């Protein structure tokens, strides 16, 4: 018999936490939630463990997680096995297993029909850079060769060779926006990767992003304003005819359907059916990319009919159970901690044999036993409310690393702070304002180079350059 502990990103599975008999909004990760995973590892004593979280977590907290679990960080981008750009880190005891092979999947490969969707109009065409990535074998300190993803941001590809991994498109390709440069309004190409789907987020492109999806006009009855035509690499917007990086044809701008998000997470079509579309989007945004987990768990050393007992922390929609089935394991006993009701509904619809255990804080009880249910809620400290799930709450982090984290955050805020300018006066001319905007654009470009994974800075550059262009067009 083998015992397997899996879990991670507790913020994404803990939207309504029950503490001391009352409900508390809890959208931050909270060090206390990670300690639930540590308690599970100590008490369950697994043969194998796997922990996952967002790559954007602070370096100090990631290093502490690695120390607590006694294993190195393993970075994998879901773009290698899916059409989604989803960067995560994993901590496990499977050793140096490298990277999954790139499958060369782009968004266009998983698109469904556009029938019945709401369409939007393109307002601006962007000229943002796309990223080319190579997977290279490099010697490590111990003399062994390990595979590493090496991106370049100079808008050029690597040398063309017969090796597919020399040129991997691991990033979304931005085409423009429908209204503003805000994330919910940005439009991406179907011939790159999708943006990271999320559980939260509003606006037209909230949760999935917006995409220029190719259509055959013969299959639709659409008003002319509902679609766009690209001819000779040009498209017409309200600002006139502009160049765009798309093949000739007809396109509509829309967000993705739930079934397309299932495909982005490499789950079966219809896996999340049975709840509302909003709950499906949330559950998938909270979930794992199944093929990444499958790659890691494929290194379990066990016969396919050997008993495997699984303890899944913050289980969500039971992606771990699906992965084990797809790997061919036939004798799985699966225990799950999850309190989000729509997620549990999806999990139990697909796998009625899952043993749901409720609140993960029960792992801190002295009388904890695997499979035991409790009538009273676990006594635990309420988690503070935060704006976004992707951020790491450090309020409960160990004291020895708090200072480092706070210092890093302070330095980042200083880098991101816009330049202080004097209040406008009668002597402040538009020429001076234009020069200030150009200087600010250069500063944001520097930040974009320092943080290639964060597209906020690139968006600022586009917005500032647009403002400068308007001033120049007015002759000011």
Can you summarize this structure?
It is built from 10 helices and 20 strands.
Q: What's the CATH class of one domain, please?
A: Alpha Beta
Oligomer: single chain
Determine the fraction of residues in helical runs and give it as a percent range. 25-40%
Described by the principal axes of the CA atoms, the overall outline is globular
Descriptive report:
- There is one protein chain.
- With 476 residues, the chain is α/β, with parallel strands linked by helices.
- Among the domains are: 1-95 and 277-417, Rossmann fold (3-Layer(aba) Sandwich); 420-473.
- The protein has helices spanning 31-44, 59-69, 258-264, 277-286, 290-297, 319-326, 341-350, 399-416, 430-450, 456-473; strands at 2-8, 16-19, 22-25, 48-54, 73-77, 87-92, 124-125, 132-139, 145-152, 168-169, 174-177, 186-188, 210-215, 228-230, 234-237, 240-243, 249-255, 308-313, 332-337, 355-356.
- A 7-stranded mixed beta sheet has the order 5-6-4-1-18-19-20, with helices on both faces. A 6-stranded mixed beta sheet has the order 7-11-12-13-17-14, with no helix packed on it. Strands 9-8-10 form a 3-stranded antiparallel beta sheet, with no helix packed on it.
- Strand 19 (332-337), helix 7 and strand 20 (355-356) form a beta-alpha-beta unit.
- It is globular, with a radius of gyration of 24 Å.
- The relative contact order is 0.16.
